[in-house]
From TrEMBL:
<keyword id="KW-0813">Transport</keyword>
<dbReference type="GO" id="GO:0016887">
    <property type="term" value="F:ATP hydrolysis activity"/>
</dbReference>
<keyword id="KW-0406">Ion transport</keyword>
<comment type="similarity">
    <text>Belongs to the ABC transporter superfamily.</text>
</comment>
<keyword id="KW-0547">Nucleotide-binding</keyword>
<feature type="region of interest" description="Disordered">
    <location>
        <begin position="288"/>
        <end position="324"/>
    </location>
</feature>
<protein>
    <submittedName>
        <fullName>Manganese/iron ABC transporter ATP-binding protein</fullName>
    </submittedName>
</protein>
<keyword id="KW-0862">Zinc</keyword>
<keyword id="KW-0864">Zinc transport</keyword>
<feature type="domain" description="ABC transporter">
    <location>
        <begin position="22"/>
        <end position="257"/>
    </location>
</feature>
<dbReference type="InterPro" id="IPR003439">
    <property type="entry name" value="ABC_transporter-like_ATP-bd"/>
</dbReference>
<dbReference type="GO" id="GO:0005524">
    <property type="term" value="F:ATP binding"/>
</dbReference>
<dbReference type="InterPro" id="IPR027417">
    <property type="entry name" value="P-loop_NTPase"/>
</dbReference>
<dbReference type="Pfam" id="PF00005">
    <property type="entry name" value="ABC_tran"/>
</dbReference>
<dbReference type="InterPro" id="IPR017871">
    <property type="entry name" value="ABC_transporter-like_CS"/>
</dbReference>
<dbReference type="InterPro" id="IPR003593">
    <property type="entry name" value="AAA+_ATPase"/>
</dbReference>
<keyword id="KW-0067">ATP-binding</keyword>
Length: 324
């Protein structure tokens, strides 16, 4: 029953031009068992942007990815990628995917360079014989992600961060213009996360559109221009600064998040600065919000905007911090 889903609280907060990016209109996906995993989902993402896809497990993030890649049919609605239908975009090799670790058989004996070469299959002929241009594209992609020296290594021998970089290299070798990344920071240390973010920014500057499914709330204001919040439908979308708010996060996560509030008097040497600090976490990298500077110490306003701070402590120099 669709009535069991929450009604959208907010839609477009974005005045950007979505032409040539990702456009979803009233998308509904119902599986064969009758379960409607996503209903009436609408959002628009312009080219040259990085967008976070945020929501609890089971909110419909994976279903949305599958719909964009044509793995599941839509019961109604439409999706356009770079102004093309899904079928046209896939046939043109425009859509690339960086999977979760759980989706890959790491025991399968395949070399790093062969994984990256898979991104070139759509550019090859029927027999999939690699031409000089394909080898050059693989070489350039491996160099760009800093994995050239591992080209002859078995994929299963790599660390979590190295594996992510290999699949990013596959997307680059493919020349994907729409890149879907499913939890790219899971199992990745802070230094590798920073390298991945730097690479995503480069790809953004090249005009590609990236949709990043992530539980890493603290990183979202840091590198995502836009945010799409989902919970059975799209609750809100638009620029991160106006969408990634306390109120919207509460609606999207429905009590899953934990809160810590530190009084302004304990944080600031300036006696006139009594802002409070709110930390919101789902046990990954926390999201930090500052209240407005006031003369008293009231409760933090529920509509505070994220500032982009990501104040997670680090352990052993390379692990994400956690407020527990």
């Amino acid at each position: 029953m669709l009535d069991s889903y929450p009604a959208p609280v907010l839609h477009d907060t974005d005045n950007g031009d979505p032409a040539g990016g990702i456009m979803a209109r009233d998308v509904t996906v119902t599986y064969r068992n009758g379960h409607t995993a996503l209903h009436d989902a609408s959002f628009e993402i312009p080219r040259g942007t990085i967008t976070a896809l945020v929501g609890v497990n089971g909110a419909g993030k994976s279903t949305l990815f599958k719909a964009i890649m044509g793995f599941v049919p839509t019961a109604r609605g439409e999706i356009k990628l770079l102004g093309k239908s899904i079928k046209e975009a896939l046939a043109s090799n425009l859509v690339a995917y960086v999977p979760q670790a759980e989706e890959v058989d790491w025991a399968f004996p395949v070399l790093v360079e062969d994984v990256v070469m898979m991104g070139r299959y759509g550019h090859m002929g029927f027999l999939r014989r690699a031409a000089r241009a394909d080898h050059d594209a693989v070489e350039a992609a491996l160099g760009r992600v800093g994995m050239s020296e591992f080209r002859k290594r078995q994929i299963g021998e790599l660390s979590g961060g190295q594996r992510k970089r290999v699949f990013l290299a596959r997307s680059i070798a493919q020349d994907g213009q729409v890149i879907l990344l499913d939890e790219p920071f899971t199992g990745v240390d802070v230094k590798t996360e920073e390298k991945i973010i730097a690479l995503l920014r480069e790809l953004k500057d090249e005009g590609r559109v990236m949709l990043v499914s992530t539980h890493n709330l603290g990183s979202v204001p840091e590198f995502c221009d836009r945010t799409v919040l989902v919970k059975g439908t799209v609750l809100a979308y638009g620029p991160t600064e106006t969408t990634f708010t306390h109120e919207n996060l509460e609606t999207a996560f429905g009590g899953v998040l934990r809160h810590f509030t530190l009084g302004g008097d304990d944080l600031h040497h300036d006696e006139g600065d009594t802002r409070e600090l709110r930390i919101i976490t789902d046990d990954e990298r926390p999201f930090v919000q500052y209240g407005e500077k006031r003369s008293a110490s009231p409760a933090v306003d529920a509509t505070l905007r994220g500032t982009g701070h990501s104040g997670a402590p680090e352990e052993d120099g390379d692990k994400k911090g956690d407020f527990s």
